[in-house]
């Protein structure tokens, strides 16, 4: 591993925060392995990175599939390895109260957010330990520290990922691996709410209705990139970031004429 060009794996890089974070790191001169399921999106992202200081290598991968994560590891290792892993893949499915919870939604959320991160972390920990100054960034959510009505399944998944991140920080400090957690609140992306509302564009739009300036994927990407670009001895353990209009999970001000 050369110390000259930092190298990262970014999961969930096909859209939203993962895509924006991969792009930002390439702008910062990083070598980025951009992993996700939709190869067309990854190829488009690679094309967008052509003239930037860093380099982006698209890798088709599904964090819910053991064999796919192993194949991802082999691809990354064969092309020089990484010192930083950003677990951005994740998402929400459904907004029903517990009384009407769909177990398949919960399974999907736990598999994607918690076990997806776990698969990647387990696979890459030996590489990061061997590097000697590794970094893991887990993108969780404010939903990982505050429960809310209609959020239980997502809360359960993000609370789980939050807990895992805390334990990982304690366990890996001896190996000089810093573990960063970024916990965003309301972020308006093309897909997050649309997926959660099962493709219902009107319900997805309602999530952000009247909110002046929800966070954007780029806002979160800037913070993720800032955290991993800091000198390695500085660990921003937990970064909670929200739009000003969301003072807390229960206090979302919707006073704008048009939804942002
Ligand atoms: C998304 C934040 O407020 O929708 O991770 O739970 S929220």
Automatic annotation (TrEMBL):
<comment type="similarity">
    <text>Belongs to the short-chain dehydrogenases/reductases (SDR) family.</text>
</comment>
<dbReference type="GO" id="GO:0016616">
    <property type="term" value="F:oxidoreductase activity, acting on the CH-OH group of donors, NAD or NADP as acceptor"/>
</dbReference>
<dbReference type="InterPro" id="IPR036291">
    <property type="entry name" value="NAD(P)-bd_dom_sf"/>
</dbReference>
<protein>
    <submittedName>
        <fullName>Oxidoreductase</fullName>
    </submittedName>
</protein>
<dbReference type="Pfam" id="PF00106">
    <property type="entry name" value="adh_short"/>
</dbReference>
<dbReference type="InterPro" id="IPR002347">
    <property type="entry name" value="SDR_fam"/>
</dbReference>
<keyword id="KW-0560">Oxidoreductase</keyword>
């Amino acid at each position: 591993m050369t110390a000259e060009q930092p190298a990262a794996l970014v999961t969930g890089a096909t859209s939203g925060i993962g895509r924006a974070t991969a792009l930002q790191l390439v702008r910062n001169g990083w070598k980025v392995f951009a992993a996700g399921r939709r190869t067309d999106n990854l190829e488009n992202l690679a094309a967008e990175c052509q003239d930037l200081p860093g380099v982006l290598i698209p890798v088709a991968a599904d964090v819910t599939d053991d064999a796919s994560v192993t194949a991802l590891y082999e691809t990354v290792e064969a092309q020089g390895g990484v010192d930083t892993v950003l677990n951005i893949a994740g998402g929400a499915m459904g907004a029903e109260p517990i009384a009407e919870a769909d177990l398949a939604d919960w399974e999907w959320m736990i598999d994607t957010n918690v076990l997806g991160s776990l698969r990647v972390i387990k696979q890459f920990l030996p590489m990061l330990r061997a590097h000697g100054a590794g970094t893991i960034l887990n993108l969780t959510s404010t939903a990982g520290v505050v429960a809310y009505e209609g959020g239980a399944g997502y809360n359960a998944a993000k609370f789980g990922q939050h807990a895992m991140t805390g334990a990982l920080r304690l366990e890996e400090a001896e190996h000089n691996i810093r573990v960063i957690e970024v916990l965003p609140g309301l972020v308006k992306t093309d897909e997050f709410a649309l997926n959660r509302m099962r493709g219902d564009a009107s319900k997805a739009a309602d999530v952000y209705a009247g909110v002046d300036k929800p966070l954007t994927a780029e806002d979160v990407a800037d913070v993720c990139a800032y955290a991993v670009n800091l000198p390695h001895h500085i660990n921003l353990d937990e970064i909670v970031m929200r739009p000003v209009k969301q003072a807390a999970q229960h206090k979302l001000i919707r006073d704008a004429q048009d939804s942002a």
